[in-house]
Structure formats: C-alpha cells, structure tokens
Amino acid sequence: MIATETKNKNVVEIEGGYYTFKLKDILDKRKISINKLMRDTNTDFKVIKRYMTGELLRLDIIILARFCTYLDCELTDLIEYRRK
After folding, report:
1. Residue 51, exposed/middle/buried by CB under 10 A (0-12, 13-18, 19+)?
2. Model's pTM, two decimal places?
3. pLDDT confidence of residue 61
4. How many Å apart are CA 25 and CA 50, to the nearest integer?
5. How does pLDDT run along the chain (84 residues), one tens digit per residue?
6. SS (H, E, C) the chain
7. Do strands 2-6 and 9-14 pair parallel, antiparallel, or not at all (unpaired)?
8. Are 40 and 70 in contact (CB under 8 A)?
C-alpha cells in the first residue's frame, strides 16, 4: 500500500488501483471542522483522521453512511476508486 497526498486529497495505491480519499476536501469547502464532524456524527477523532488520510485497513459502511447523511453527499464524493 502506497499513500500520497495531493492538495487535500489522499491517494492510496492498493492491488491494481488507486483509492482517493476526499473527506478533507469536502470539510474544507464547507468550513466544517473535524471536531464538529466528530461531535455531530458521534465518530471518534482517530477514525475521522483515517478516512481523511486513507490509512485504513477496512472501510466501515456504517461510518460512511453517517458521513454521507451528515454531509448530504454520495459515497463517491468521499472515496473514489480507479484501476491502473
């Protein structure tokens, strides 16, 4: 797994493709702090940071649903996958 950061987006290379984690970009655009997201979605700070950096072993669909509901967005707005 190789992680790189490009302007508010973190790209992680995993087995034949790239995941782009865009949570930080969305929070910055909407001027929502990590602490506000943490309180409003009842999600641990460390968990949010992992979704911002892509330093995850597994995606939790419950947490992703919380983020999508709170931010009124689609899953693809948070995480994008592209094959090599």
Report:
1. buried
2. 0.84
3. 96
4. 14
5. 444 545 546 888 888 899 999 999 999 999 999 999 999 999 999 999 999 999 988 999 999 999 999 999 999 999 999 998
6. CEEEEECCEEEEEECCEEEEECHHHHHHHHCCCHHHHHHHHCCCHHHHHHHHHCCCCCCCHHHHHHHHHHHCCCHHHHEEEEEC
7. antiparallel
8. yes
Domains identified in the chain and CATH numbers: 2-83 (1.10.260.40)
- What is residue 8's predicted lDDT score, i.e. its pLDDT? 45
d(CA 41, CA 70): 7
| Structure tokens that stand for 16 in this block | 């034949």
